[in-house]
């Protein structure tokens, strides 16, 4: 082993804990791994016909003849997502409508659609297409449509029987997103109603490599179907000892792999969030620069949800010869996706999980241990186009204490948006037969918030109002749709469209770790004394006025891709608003209108608090957003229920 590999420089790098590591420190450090499992595998084969699922084609089609619902479990990479829709394409089952394949994440929907289009020698938007929020790449020719579960749920609002579809495949069901859970119930109901109304049937296929098949089976009243076989073997290694600093363990492992494996073995690293990812990316780039292996190179890509879509897709492209691709991702890369070239996965064993606190009414982001199912999904990202290895920076014993699967999102999420969508479908969430029933307090909070937004008449008797129905037409959080629906009255529709578009976009700021001060200075130019919302609006307005947008964004440390994305979102929101007959007006420089309008939507958010907390938070909130001014109160009161809790004059 060439331990000198690490020590050609004297530079230091900063790790998140602000601890400085000397490159020399890494020399003697190695994470000792123990091989814990060798997943049995077949020989290396790349053609789709050699995928294990291929042998099950006839079995699947036959099962569908006698069953309306199939529950299919097969190994990661066995070909479920890419192949099953193709088996169905020319089958009798797909004669009466489009095949929908849902994915919990947009990046998966897009990349799989591209792959399947490639396999069918067509282009995306032809026979195969995808639809994700604010982007539709389908046409009247599209027969297989990959879409996020959120998009399909939204479509159900317009047509509860989902008549456009002949087959719906809910993929990655183990992820237990709220949307997939709700869709299970909706599709089940659509199957039943279509049968009663003698409409063409609807087949439902649920797929995953790691779902709790008994639980699903009981709910759907079907037996599970197992597809045997694995495409390529994945060697799984756990650290011998507990690693107190997983970032450090990951870094050491990256360079061990870099030093000891062929340069075309690309690496995928799982960390918990953007900050960690950016820090590690910088460390790897710095270390690789001064420690190159011969003429080889390292290209580091990052993959997390706040990245602009175009940037997220960069890691799927091939890199030049003699270059090792290193992708550092959050759990967004955990299921479904194939990043070509990945032979090695390094899993830190943690994930950031969003949960909703029914007592405070706030969403909390916490770093928690992954589940066993997530660990297997992560290792499954290696061994897709060749045998692979997965390094886990936790011990085998530690893994024993992991939960079998992550807690379903429906048991820990803020349910306001889902509750409104269901109400628009005529379904009361508390009466809806779901795979797991949500917490009663979460449901009552959702009703209270919707009541405060004016979307339902009363939390006790949750009948959707006409305003609520309009709100459900926007693919937005209800508080943002409320803003758009209130804006014409306040005379600030143009401004609110821009603001909501920016709020629906990932971070528009660029904060390079080495130029933090310059970036802060540049951003300060746009700062509004009335808070973040008006600052964002300022930025968007300046962006639209600028001709040389690229240079302007660069000079102002702003993300051009995300601002362009916001512009597209704005166009679509404008389209929906026009369809709903909303008038388009502008308040010009009089931003007081925007501030007043903001109260109508954002207030709903804090309204689930206890009365005492609400008085306090409400007052602070009003202070932040508006001047405490009785004239304003007159304007906003009709939009807010229960404002009487707050003594505005104080
Ligand atoms: N974008 C892609 N680029 C290259 N190869 C791909 C791509 N997508 C899929 N493949 C190939 O097809 C195989 C099957 O992928 P597919 O996504 O259908 O499997 P899966 O059983 O659905 O896996 P998972 O349970 O992990 O989602 C992969 O192992 C890989 O060899």
Characteristics of this structure?
single chain, 650 residues, Rossmann fold, eight-stranded mixed beta sheet, globular, disordered N terminus, disordered C terminus, binds adenosine-5'-triphosphate, DEAD/DEAH_box_helicase_dom, ATP-binding, ATP binding, RNA helicase, double-stranded RNA binding
Short description:
The protein folds into three domains: 48-227, P-loop containing nucleotide triphosphate hydrolases (Rossmann fold, 3-Layer(aba) Sandwich); 234-409, 3-Layer(aba) Sandwich (Rossmann fold), CATH 3.40.50; 474-645, no CATH class.
What does this structure look like?
With 650 residues, the protein is α/β, with parallel strands linked by helices. The protein folds into 3 domains: 48-227, 3-Layer(aba) Sandwich (Rossmann fold); 234-409, P-loop containing nucleotide triphosphate hydrolases (Rossmann fold, 3-Layer(aba) Sandwich), CATH 3.40.50; 474-645, no CATH class. It is 41% helix and 16% strand. The strands form 4 sheets. An 8-stranded mixed beta sheet has the order 7-6-8-5-9-10-4-11, sandwiched between helices. The protein has a 7-stranded mixed beta sheet with strand order 3-12-19-16-13-15-14, sandwiched between helices. A two-stranded antiparallel sheet has the order 1-2. α16 (478-490) packs antiparallel against α22 and α17 packs across α21. The longest helix has 20 residues, at 560-579. The chain is globular and about 65 Å long. Residues 1-28, 36-45, 604-620, 623-630 and 641-650 have low confidence and may be disordered. The structure holds adenosine-5'-triphosphate (ATP). Residues 51, 74, 76-83, 111, 115, 209, 231, 335-336, 338, 340, 380, 384-385 line the site of adenosine-5'-triphosphate (ATP). Adenosine-5'-triphosphate binds at residues 51, 74, 76-83, 111, 115, 209, 231, 335-336, 338, 340, 380, 384-385. Keywords: ATP-binding, Helicase, Hydrolase, Nucleotide-binding. One of its GO terms (cellular component) is nucleolus. One of its GO terms (molecular function) is ATP binding. InterPro entries: DEAD/DEAH_box_helicase_dom, DNA/RNA_helicase_DEAH_CS, HA2_WH, Helicase-assoc_dom, Helicase_ATP-bd, Helicase_C-like, P-loop_NTPase. This is RNA helicase.
């Amino acid at each position: 082993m060439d331990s000198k590999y690490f020590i050609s420089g004297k530079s230091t790098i900063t790790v998140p804990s602000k601890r400085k590591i000397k490159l020399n420190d890494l020399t003697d450090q190695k994470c000792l791994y123990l091989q814990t499992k060798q997943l049995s595998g077949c020989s290396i084969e790349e053609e789709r016909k050699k995928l294990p699922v291929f042998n099950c084609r006839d079995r699947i089609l036959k099962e569908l003849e006698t069953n309306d619902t199939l529950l299919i479990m097969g190994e990661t990479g066995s070909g479920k997502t890419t192949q099953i829709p193709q088996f169905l394409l020319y089958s009798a089952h797909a004669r009466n409508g489009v095949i929908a394949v849902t994915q919990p994440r947009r990046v998966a929907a897009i990349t799989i659609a591209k792959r399947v289009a490639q396999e069918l020698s067509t282009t995306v938007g032809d026979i195969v297409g995808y639809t994700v929020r604010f982007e539709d790449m389908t046409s009247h020719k599209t027969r297989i449509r990959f879409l996020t579960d959120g998009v399909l749920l939204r479509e159900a609002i317009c047509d509860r029987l989902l008549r456009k579809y002949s087959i719906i495949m809910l993929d990655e069901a183990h992820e237990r997103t709220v949307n997939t859970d709700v869709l299970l119930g909706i599709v089940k109901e659509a199957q039943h109603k279509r049968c009663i109304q003698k409409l063409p049937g609807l087949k439902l296929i649920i797929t995953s490599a790691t779902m709790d098949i008994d639980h699903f089976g009981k709910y759907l009243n079907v037996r599970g179907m197992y597809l045997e076989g694995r495409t390529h073997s994945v060697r799984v290694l756990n650290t011998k000892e507990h690693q107190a600093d997983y970032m450090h363990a990951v870094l050491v492992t990256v360079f061990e792999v870099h030093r000891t494996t062929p340069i075309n073995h690309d690496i995928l690293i799982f960390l918990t969030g953007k900050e960690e990812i950016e820090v590690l990316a910088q460390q790897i780039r710095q270390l690789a620069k001064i420690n190159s292996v011969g003429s080889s190179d390292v290209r580091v890509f990052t993959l997390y949800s706040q990245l602009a879509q175009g940037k997220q897709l960069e890691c799927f492209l091939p890199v030049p010869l003699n270059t090792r691709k290193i992708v550092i991702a959050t759990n967004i890369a955990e299921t479904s996706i194939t990043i070509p070239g990945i032979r090695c996965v390094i899993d830190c064993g943690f994930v950031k999980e969003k949960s909703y606190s029914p007592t405070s009414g706030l969403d909390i982001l916490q770093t928690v241990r992954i589940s066993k199912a997530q660990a297997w999904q992560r290792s499954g990202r290696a061994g897709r186009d060749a045998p692979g290895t997965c390094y886990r920076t936790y011990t085998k014993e530690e893994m024993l204490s992991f939960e079998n699967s992550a807690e379903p999102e429906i048991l820990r999420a803020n349910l306001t948006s889902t509750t409104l969508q269901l109400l628009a479908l005529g379904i009361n969430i508390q009466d809806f037969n779901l795979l797991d029933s949500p917490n009663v307090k979460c449901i009552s909070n959702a009703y209270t918030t919707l009541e405060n937004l004016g979307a339902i008449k009363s939390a006790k008797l949750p009948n959707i109002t006409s305003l609520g129905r309009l709100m459900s037409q926007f693919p937005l959080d209800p508080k943002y749709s409320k803003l758009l629906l209130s804006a014409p009255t306040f005379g600030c529709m143009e401004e609110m469209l821009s603001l909501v578009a920016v709020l629906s976009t990932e971070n528009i700021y660029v904060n390079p770790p080495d130029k933090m001060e310059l970036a802060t200075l540049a951003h300060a130019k746009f700062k509004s004394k009335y808070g973040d919302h008006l600052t964002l609006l300022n930025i968007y307005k300046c962006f639209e006025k600028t001709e040389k947008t690229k240079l302007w964004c660069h000079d102002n440390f702003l993300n051009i891709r995300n601002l362009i994305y916001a512009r597209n979102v704005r166009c679509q929101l404008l389209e929906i608003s026009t369809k709903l007959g909303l008038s388009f007006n502008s308040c010009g420089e009089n931003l007081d209108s925007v501030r007043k309008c903001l109260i109508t939507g954002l207030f709903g958010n804090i309204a689930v608090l206890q009365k005492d907390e609400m008085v306090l938070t409400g007052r602070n909130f009003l202070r932040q957003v508006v001047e405490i001014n009785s004239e304003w109160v007159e304007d906003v009161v009709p939009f807010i229920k229960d404002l009487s809790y707050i003594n505005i004059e104080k």
